[in-house]
Amino acid sequence: MYRREWHYAGRACTGILLWLVVAPAAGAAAEPDPLRERVQACTACHGEEKIEIAEGYVPRIRGKPAGYLYNQLMNYRAHRRHDATMNHLVRNLSAKYLFEIAEYFAAQQPPYPEPAPTPDDPALRERGQALVEHGDPDAGIPACRACHGERLTGVLPATPGLIGLPQHYLSAELNGWQLGRREAAEPDCMATIVERMSGHDIQAVSAWLAARPLPDDTRPDAEAIEATPMNCGSIPRPDK
Predict the structure, then answer these.
(1) pLDDT per residue as tens digits for the range 126-139
(2) Could you tell me which residues come within 8 angstroms of residue 28 by beta carbon, excluding any fewer than 6 positions away?
(3) Do residues 168 and 213 make contact, with C-beta atoms less than 8 angstroms apart?
(4) How high is the mean pLDDT of the chain?
(5) β 51-53/56-58 pair status
(6) pTM, to two decimals
(7) At what angle do helices 66-77 and 95-106 cross, to 10 degrees?
(8) Which of 120, 183, 215, 240 is paired with 70 by a 20 to 30 Å CA distance?
(9) How far is the C-alpha of 139 from the C-alpha of 162, rounded, in Å?
């Protein structure tokens, strides 16, 4: 999610956000509602596939690894990620409750949207494919597949998939890291990687990923295909 995308969606969700925030407290006095009803603030904006709005894009969160979703919720709570609606929404929610939300969405597997057309520019295609599949050792850029899975569907417990996302969203997130608008728990390996990428690299990777055909099985891999090339920070789950 990036800064502008909630300008309209946030206003549409304002009333229902209160439900997510107050429901855990209300449960102390009465029998709690099913989690499905308590996360309506999330599903109002994050559709089963995604939602396109006037100034941006709200991504699909269903089916992503629980560890990844939990990390992002905690990053919003700590203001390592910046979005006024999300920062406000999670600021008073406990880590345990945020992990419960993450597990709820991770367990769902609705179909992904169809991929974008393959980029017309041969040089852009070749550079994007090279970076995703092999990286650029001379520039210190590891292959995307090394961390995000052989099928680019993510890796348990906390690495997200890169399929089913549009080019403009992927590009915005990578640029967000490059400009310091998006951060992760230390060591922030994505920030390090993106610092080594040119603007053309970001465009190439985003375009090539957005056009990837969907695999038959879109669930995250149980483990990486090889040892991860960098040490990436992650927030321990609250019961550990």
Answers:
(1) 999 999 999 999 99
(2) none
(3) no
(4) 86
(5) antiparallel
(6) 0.84
(7) 140
(8) 215
(9) 22
